[in-house]
Specification:
It is an enzyme of class 3 (hydrolase). This protein is of the alpha+beta class. Helices cover 28% and strands 28% of the residues. The structure holds Palmitoyl-CoA.
């Protein structure tokens, strides 16, 4: 196993491997790369921007200005693009949201090898229509909680083979929702997990996921 995989395994091992607020703040493949508060602040600002862009209907002059500013920002950051092995976003597993903005921030409140409970709020960015979260955004969240659960507790890495989602009632944006995941059973390399997303007493969606443990050399 490479040093990188060892580092990941170390953080994923055991009930304390995830969800701890006081653990080292980085999962990095190269010493010296850390998610500084400034980096995390940039990610938070991007999340707010995604919500604001989604909601905004600006006048033409503001649109022109905004486009110019965004293009300048892209160009500025492009100069610092790193290869995947050095990328921070998505790999900061000790930070809620893992430093990426593709899925909403999952806050874990309780964690064990077989169960996880947390909360999440979908912002305006995730709107499908009529106040409901887009149907494609909900599996992102299920994959996040189940993927973590499937790969924690010293288990060898696995990948999602299927993720079946049932949409039971609309999932509202802009309010805190509760999410719960369970590691149901293991059959050889196959790990079966389930999850539910609720708004108070209302079941919004549930999911069943199969995660298959990777064979050596499988990407
Ligand atoms: C690497 C991770 C590190 C984690 C670090 C933590 C990071 C911090 C948290 C991140 C949280 C986000 C986690 C996201 C996790 C992803 O989303 S991964 C990305 C999405 N998934 C993929 O890209 C997977 C693509 N598919 C594959 O790579 C391969 O198909 C798989 C899933 C590895 C399986 O292929 P395989 O190893 O050749 O397996 P195979 O021998 O065909 O099947 C094994 C068994 O599974 C069954 N099976 C396989 N596929 C299916 C299926 N679709 N339906 C039913 N049965 C199936 C087979 O029938 C067989 O059953 P048995 O005959 O043993 O009873």
């Amino acid at each position: 196993m490479s040093t990188d995989e060892n580092a990941a395994e170390e953080l994923l091992r055991g009930p304390e491997g995830l969800g701890r607020r006081d653990m080292p703040t980085s999962w990095t493949r190269r010493p010296g790369i850390e998610p500084t508060p400034d980096f995390l602040a940039m990610i938070d600002a991007l999340r707010a921007l995604q919500d604001d862009v989604t909601a905004a209907v600006p006048p033409p002059d503001v649109l022109v200005d905004t486009t110019k500013t965004l293009s300048e920002l892209s160009e500025r950051l492009r100069a610092y693009a790193a290869p995947e092995r050095d990328q921070l976003t998505g790999r900061l597993i000790t930070v809620p949201g893992r430093g990426q903005t593709m899925s909403p921030v999952l806050h874990l409140d309780e964690w064990s090898e077989h169960h996880a409970r947390g909360h999440v709020t979908f912002g305006r960015f995730y709107l499908g229509g009529n106040g409901a979260v887009h149907g494609g955004a909900i599996p992102l969240l299920f994959d996040e909680i189940l993927g973590r659960l499937a790969n924690t507790g010293g288990r060898r890495p696995s990948r999602t083979a299927f993720l079946h989602v049932n949409y039971r009632s609309i999932t509202p944006i802009g309010v805190e929702l509760q999410i719960e995941g369970r590691f149901e059973r293991e059959e050889g390399r196959k790990r079966f997990l389930t999850a539910e997303l609720r708004h108070g007493d209302t079941l919004c969606a549930d999911a069943e996921g199969l995660f298959v443990q990777l064979k050596p050399g499988q990407p």
